[in-house]
């Protein structure tokens, strides 16, 4: 008796697989589109989050740049405030100096205009041009009335001015509203002047106004020179010293005035 063939189960399996493939494969595009429909909102949300994150980072970078600019502006503002404060002090000083200069003019003094035409490299002297005759030893002041030197050599139209800052300059001075000399003012070749030979009994303090005293080198008194910047008291020396600040930049001066009797 012949055995039944074993191929029948395998044929049935193949038929089922074939039918299944034909059944499911037409729906694959639908499944793919359905998956896209499900994932699209998520992708859109992720894209929005990424865009918002990028925007926030851009805002952060802009804010950092803005902070740096603000810090820079604040620094410049502080510098301007310091400059304005100095200018206000200069204005006050100038008003006081002009008042002092007016007092001098009331005493029948004459101002002769002088134009600065040259400067020594050492910074000790100025060469000035003037339309009127001036005399040797006459004080020379800035437009604000600060004494900066004396006529050391006079000519018909050109004269030399020896500056107080010159190392060769020295003469007695006093404190404004006092009659007695307080010491000898010497040039150091610098912006500040040295007030030397101050007696121990003299009570000199920072801010005191130093003015000229009539003598051998300076023919007029009570002309403003500067303010005491610092007093140096010595325990071993017989005299004290002080520094006097004028606040004058000779390099920026274009003209001066000569005070003539």
- Mean pLDDT across the residues is 78
Strand order of the largest sheet: 1-2-5-4-3-12
Number of domains: 2
**CATH architecture level-2 label of the largest domain:** Beta Barrel
* End-to-end CA span: 162 Å
Classify the secondary structure makeup into a structural class. alpha+beta
Largest sheet: 6 strands, antiparallel, barrel
> Helices and strands, in N-to-C order?
HHEEEEEEEEEEEE
Taken as a percent bin, the fraction of beta residues is: 25-35%
CATH 4th-level superfamily of the largest domain = Rod shape-determining protein MreC, domain 1
Helix content: 25-40%
What's the total number of strands? 12
Query: In terms of per-residue confidence, which ranges show pLDDT below 50 for 5 or more consecutive residues?
Result: 103-107
Which CATH C-level class of the largest domain is it? Mainly Beta
- Count helical runs: 2
Q: What integer value in Å does the Rg equal?
A: 46 Å
Give a written overview of the molecule.
The chain is an alpha+beta fold and 261 residues long. The chain has two domains: 30-106; 109-260, Thrombin, subunit H (Beta Barrel), CATH 2.40.10.340. 37% of the residues lie in helices and 28% in strands. It has helices spanning 7-24, 28-106, and strands at residues 110-119, 125-130, 139-141, 147-153, 158-163, 170-175, 183-186, 193-198, 209-212, 224-232, 240-245, 255-260. Strands 1-2-5-4-3-12 form a six-stranded antiparallel barrel. Strands 6-7-8-11-10-9 form a six-stranded antiparallel β-barrel. The longest helix has 79 residues, at 28-106. The N and C termini lie far apart (162 Å). The model is unreliable at 103-107 (pLDDT under 50).
